[in-house]
Amino acid sequence: MFTRLKEKWKVSWFQFTLIFCTFALGGSSCSYVAKKLLSYSPIERGTEYVIIYIVLVTLLWPICVLIVSMPFGQFPFFKQYLTRIWNTLTKKRAR
Description:
Blueprint (H helix, E strand, L loop, with lengths): L1 H8 L3 H27 L7 H26 L2 H15 L6
């Protein structure tokens, strides 16, 4: 499974490891920031909290991943990765 992903992304095993670390740390930091932001709001834990949390995580994830990718030297990969996701979501074709 990892070999196919590594070949699809056309990266070395070392870069692949850095990319996975970036995904993990970016996702974790995104969750932490979303919870911190919600702790400052008067919203009680419940349905509204969960909905707002999901929206916050969805909006914050790309930002967190790009920030975390900088010290790992993976910013160009994630910029391209997020651009492809955006183009897919907006139905633009990558050139």
